[in-house]
Amino acid sequence: MPSSTTPNGAWPDPGGLVLRLAVALGLVIAIALVGGRALVEAVLSITTPTLLGWIDDRFGILFLGLDHTGQDTVIRLRTNLVRMLVVGTHVVQPHPKGWLEVTTTVGAMLQPVTIGLGLAGAWPGKAGIRLLRLLLVAVLGVAFMLMDIPLTLHAYTWDMFLDHYDPDHVSPVMLTHNFLHGGGRLAVGVLMAALVIRGVPRNRRAKSAVAADPGHGL
């Protein structure tokens, strides 16, 4: 039976890599379908309300949780303006009965960690090395999600005001949001996996032997 490991530093067989990637992504997606909702709910309850307040304290949270829209599970934020807001040349005052609502899909928020775990699990290496890679990618993926969810919700909220009052305004928040929405989350997932694969070699013995060789590099 052919081994899934390759010599340290060698590029893996493309056909085998594609097959392992398909299997790994299938497993990760199945796990995400079962446990992804619970993970997102944990992120929402622990950090998102606080981070939303740090990003922009001019908005209050009326509702923040998961809901279903058609076939999608979404994160729903209902918010209201609690302090005066200036958008371009317009001044928007809070209204006691005013509120607005935005949503984003749970699948979009899980995309970076799903892609990262799939790539890390498919890359050649011994079982212990793969497990370490998966653990590191999971930590990075959750850390990114902690920032991505509140930033995305705030961007959708802010976009409503910009679209109505100042559509030509260039905002760093909206530039970041548009990048992530246009494929940036896929790139983040690939980058996380690449960093972990680069940092955790396939053959730790080989690396240790090279480091122990006093004549290496002389």
Instruction: List the helices and strands in order.
Output: HHEEEEEHHHH
What profile does the largest beta sheet have? 3 strands, antiparallel
Number of strands: 5
- Chain oligomer state: single chain
Give the mean pLDDT. 86
> Helix fraction?
55-70%
Question: Gyration radius, to the nearest Å?
Answer: 22 Å
Strand order of the largest sheet: 1-2-5
Low-confidence regions? 206-210
Give the distance, in angstroms, between the N- and C-terminal Cα atoms. 39 Å
Residues in β-strands, percent: 15-25%
Structural class: alpha+beta
Shape: elongated
Structure annotation, total helices: 6
Per-chain topology:
Layout: H1 14-46, H2 48-55, E1 59-69, E2 72-81, E3 85-87, E4 90-92, E5 100-105, H3 106-122, H4 127-165, H5 172-199, H6 204-212
Antiparallel strand pairs: 1-2, 2-5, 3-4
Helix pairs in contact: 1-3, 2-4, 3-4, 3-5, 4-5
Provide an overview of this structure.
By secondary structure, the chain is α+β, with helices and mostly antiparallel strands. The chain has a domain at 21-56 and 107-202. The chain contains 6 helices and 5 strands; from the N terminus they run ααβββββαααα. The strands form 2 sheets. A 3-stranded antiparallel β-sheet has the order 1-2-5. Strands 3-4 form a two-stranded antiparallel sheet. The two termini are 39 Å apart. Mean pLDDT is 86; it is low at 206-210.
